[in-house]
Amino acid sequence: MCGIVGYVGSRPVLPVLLDGLRRLEYRGYDSAGVALQNSDGVLIRKACGRLSVLEARVTDITEAGGFTAGMGHTRWATHGRPSDENSHPHCCLSGTIAVVHNGIIENYQRLRHKMEQAGHHLVSETDTEVIPHLIEEYYQGDLVAATRAAMTELEGSFALLVMSSDEPGLLVAVRKDSPLVIGLGEGENFVASDIPAVMEYTKRTFILDDGELAVVRSDGVEIQDGTGAPKVKPVFDVPWDVQAAEKGGYPHFMLKEIYEQPKAMEETLRGRLIDGGIFLPEFGLDAETAQGIERIHLVACGTSHHACLVGKYLIERLARLPVEVDVASEFRYREPLVTANDLVIAVSQSGETADTLAALREGRRRGARGIAVCNVVGSTIAREAEAALYTRAGLELAVASTKAYVTQVVALTLLAVELASLRGLLGAQELGQWVSQLQKLPQWSREALALAPEIETMAQELARWEHAFFIGRGLDYAVALEGQLKLKEISYIHAEAYAAGELKHGTLALIVDDIPVVALATQSHVFGKTISNITEVRARGGKVFGFSKDKAMAQYVDRMLVLPDCPDLLAPAVAVIPLQLLSYYTALIRECDVDKPRNLAKSVTVE
Ligand code: M6R
């Protein structure tokens, strides 16, 4: 979604804002803008397009301007197309109050009508623009009071930064259902949608909770609760270093993150495999609670949803517990059957995805225990869940998720094995085998990365097509879904994934000469069945790129990649890596913007 950043202090303000926006660009990159405050008032510059367009428009702004506070915004359009007018910051009638916003104001049309009736002239198509006008209506020399009053009229989700030319050196930050972090410095303070924007300057942060308001000045930050009473919050020390937010010699964040996967898996496993057993104290599961679970609901979006499909397969197979996987945006609108003996597990890299958060809340509202599998420590989903298992993938900045997926798969595998053990379905010997195999996962993933040159050659053939299919059975189907999503989102090739046996029920009609079909066959018990489906495709002219541990596949496909020889049930975290690389190289050949695919944003904090 959108990224917002604010600064109050004695550094040159503009570079701090632009640097923060650069680090937040993954949240949206349709347009960008800044507002800078000095004793003369508030100066606003904004531009449709990437941050570089804005940078070209602010070259005349220098330190001589004496700016002491400012805020910036990078936009992912929801209401109103990307344009200069629709870019943030937005201003009130008199030009004194400026606002940047992440979220959606659901009642903006009614408020807009009300403002226009009161004589305000609104110039953009956005939902945001009503906010500075509304604050202006309430303003009587106290920006905090006016912002708080305006908040009572806003419906929807918002993280806001507000400043007024009448109150120099003050930023007001408020949050409802959209993330906001305060960075604490010495004689300076920061506000941002996400930690990477402030990490270079400070690692001491407050993470705002819903309904909280922060009064941010250079000499201090006061947090107020929903009633306006001061609140003491614990300082959250950021666990990552600044280098994690750099590309470290790789041309793209995506490639860097793909290559970080062995390390990320090691982190996910660290301290969780002890004495031949699984150790997940975060979940507080014991044999009695594990026996008492009636059903598990996995809720997530996009790539995280695909990790859940792997989780379902493993939990059902190993722990013999029924698991439902829901696309989070559907869960709460389908009156789900959830009981107090159920476990709802929200799976999310960012921990801020609005749909997943809403699904977690829905599950808990219906009486289930709600837990989280999350990457970002202290994120909203992790905090709202009764327990959180952190995947420890480290900072993931590329819009296309890679290391977050494999670590989610590893975390869900740990959970499946732990549940099976607690439910008495795994003996000590079998459990020990699982532990030693899990320890080898990072090595198998390194072997998968070593296949990059062969994959690059495959990408040359794939890149000239506008359509592609992915097929697989069982766990391979789940991985195929993730493979096709990666290809679609960064190379813009239309791709679809099918359970291999399903193709003949309609989609086979689309198989024409040379159309690329990526076939996965890592599951020994259905290897022969998948080969049959592959021959059906080839009989119709399809060009099959086969991915398997079993070299026997070579004779049935046009091109084959031999995958590392890992156990079938651990194959998803390994087999997905060549698919990520295939998408990456294909996107490069097609000259696509790998880290910032069109129309997308990393963290989707609106419904
Ligand atoms: O942060 P989350 O895991 O909750 O994000 C969910 C999806 O938006 C995300 O996985 C998305 O599908 C990926 N960026 C795709 O690569």
Q: What's the rounded overall pLDDT mean? A: 94
Based on CA atoms alone, the radius of gyration comes out at 25 Å
Number of domains: 3
User: What hetero molecules are in the model?
Assistant: 5-amino-5-deoxy-1-O-phosphono-D-mannitol
Helical content class? 25-40%
CATH C-level label of the largest domain: Alpha Beta
CATH architecture of the largest domain: 4-Layer Sandwich
Q: Show unreliable segments.
A: none
End-to-end distance: 11 Å
Helical run tally: 18
Share in β-strands: 15-25%
Oligomeric form of this entry?
A: single chain
The H-level CATH homologous superfamily of the largest domain, spelled out, is Aminohydrolase, N-terminal nucleophile (Ntn) domain
The total beta strand count reads 27
* Biggest beta sheet summary: 8 strands, antiparallel
Strand order, largest beta sheet: 3-2-4-1-10-9-11-15
Shape: globular
* CATH topology call of the largest domain: Glutamine Phosphoribosylpyrophosphate, subunit 1, domain 1
Find the structural class using helix and strand composition. Answer: alpha/beta
